[in-house]
Amino acid sequence: MKLMNKETLKEYARKLNDYYLEARSMPSYSQMLKIFRLKSKNAVFKRVSRMVSAGLIDKDAGGRLLPRAFRKPVRLLGMVKAGFPSPAEEETHDLMDLDEFLISNPQATYLLKVDGDSMVDAGIHPGDLVLIQKDLAPRNGDIVVACVDNEWTLKYFEKQKGKVFLRAANKKYPVIEPRQELTIAGVVIANVRKYK
Question: Catalytic residue numbers?
Fold first, then answer.
């Protein structure tokens, strides 16, 4: 069988994308027979395996298929100044896939919905989604998801003279110093807020 190139695999991934966006779930192997217009589940399995290897789709620990970059790319029209007003020139520069822009390691990245106002001065508000990468080592000033003495929280990471502190971005919250246990579950790499 002729080896499939990356573009062919991307075309299969686009078909899965279209199915996922409509059904809000991944198709079964039987459904993929029709989607890919193939005659055997073995052929489907080979294509799925190659898409997983190419990073176009993911699998969980149980072998279930997971969407990865399943959204339509958005047009990048140019730049707009956030300072003083100036004429904005609309010029299509490129297509931008938000997953590729935000996520460098899909297997180590997950989303959490924010509950509470302890990070509002960092621009993170209740209802926002934060993108967490769990394989990054936290540095001073990073915002982290941490389990402190059996309670989960989102705070600034600070290390001074070998001691770790967690600091809120809201003056009404005290600095947290772990008494017994501290587990850092990941570093915030992006904050997502939907206005409408």
Answer: 118, 155
